[in-house]
Specification:
Helices cover 12% and strands 40% of the residues. It is mostly beta strands.
């Protein structure tokens, strides 16, 4: 959706490699590259806190204006390399775009509402690919599952596209499937051990053996 474009102040980057990246991160900056069909790649570093804020509030398809030495570049976040353990951003790729340009992006699909009682909701696809104006990329597409019954399905063509978007994904892509919960089957030996009331049957107790009695002591002669 349309919003004010955030301006990111970037610094030119001339050092490369893991050592240079570590030095940048110590200064709370991350390496990034701005690339596009109408200029050579521009290697820069970005403030890590500002970049994290954009990801958190505008999503992975955010469009920003990157200012490098007084020159501004309209760019869309294209790829983010994150550490799988810490989720820290290690590197970012930004694609130069032009106002009015159409781009293809993956947009998250979010469900809302509650299905019918006893129904299990499974989401088979978390994103769909759409074509949208670069300055009006939706952050998410919401679909209602309110009252959906067992056997109902929602496919990509059922999604309500925002006015500026067209669906690129296969229209028959299954998004949401409403199914009947499956009862977990018990192993045969477990079923045999259960009684009719579902409780474990105990083995019959052994008959009690008579207590042993001590023989009376004999008198010594």
């Amino acid at each position: 959706m349309a919003h004010d474009i955030t301006v990111l102040q970037a610094q030119p980057r001339t050092e490369f490699g893991k050592g240079a990246a570590r030095r940048l991160r110590r200064d709370f900056r991350i390496p990034a590259v701005i690339y596009g069909s109408f200029h050579e790649p521009i290697h820069v570093s970005l403030n890590i806190l500002e970049f994290h804020s954009i990801l958190r509030h505008q999503g992975a398809n955010a469009v920003v204006e990157v200012e490098v030495e007084g020159e501004k570049h309209l760019a869309m976040i294209k790829a983010v390399d994150q550490n799988v353990l810490t989720m820290d951003v290690d590197h970012a790729d930004l694609l130069s775009v032009k106002r009015g340009e159409k781009v293809e992006v993956d947009v998250p699909v979010v469900t809302t509402g509650e299905a019918a009682p006893g129904a299990l909701v499974t989401q088979d696809a978390d994103v769909v690919t759409v074509e949208a104006d670069v300055l009006n990329i939706p952050e998410e597409i919401v679909v209602s599952i309110e009252g959906k019954e067992i056997g109902d399905q929602i496919v990509a063509s059922d999604l309500q596209m925002p006015g500026n978007c067209t669906l690129v994904s296969d229209p028959e892509t299954l998004i949401v499937n409403i199914v009947e919960p499956q009862e977990e089957e018990l192993p045969e030996d477990t079923e045999e051990a259960l009684g009719e009331d579902g409780e474990v049957e105990s083995a019959p107790a052994d008959p009690e053996e008579p207590e042993a009695t001590e023989a009376p002591e004999s008198d010594e002669s």
